[in-house]
Amino acid sequence: MVKKIMVVAMLSSFLCGCGSFASRFEAGYHDEYYSGVKYSVYQANRGYGVYYLDVPFSFIFDTVMLPADLIRIESTH
């Protein structure tokens, strides 16, 4: 049981905010607010269901990054 909990914890830490990083650096969502959530939902709808697990983590990371995103996005317009 302890091994299963450790495996789930490790997988969760690897997935934490993965959509947020991918959306900012490679996916073309870098000019949108909550881009990690949008990217994760898009990937999940394409058939990569594991991205549904990433949505809450991306939401948290995108919320933390919101002030920086506001400055970055508004300065480019």
User: How would a crystallographer describe the biggest sheet?
Assistant: none
Pattern of helices and strands: HHHH
Number of domains: 1
Oligomer: single chain
Query: Which percent band covers the strand fraction?
Result: under 5%
Radius of gyration: 14 Å
Shape from CA axes? elongated
User: What proportion of the residues is helical, as a percent range?
Assistant: over 70%
Number of helices: 4
Between the first and last Cα atoms, what is the distance in angstroms?
52 Å
Average pLDDT confidence is: 82
> Structural class, judged by helices and strands?
mainly alpha
Characterization of the model:
The chain is mostly helical. The protein has one domain (14-76). 77% of the residues lie in helices and 0% in strands. It has four helices and no strands. It is elongated. It starts with a helix and ends with a helix. It comes from Limnobaculum eriocheiris. This is YceK/YidQ family lipoprotein. Keywords: Lipoprotein, Signal.
Please give a handful of descriptors for the protein shown.
77 residues; mainly alpha; 4 helices; elongated; lipoprotein; YceK/YidQ family lipoprotein; signal
How would you summarize what this structure contains?
With 77 residues, the protein is mainly alpha-helical. 77% of the residues lie in helices and 0% in strands.
Describe how the helices and strands are arranged.
Layout (H helix, E strand, L loop, with lengths): L1 H14 L2 H8 L9 H11 L5 H26 L1
Helix pairs in contact: 2-3, 3-4
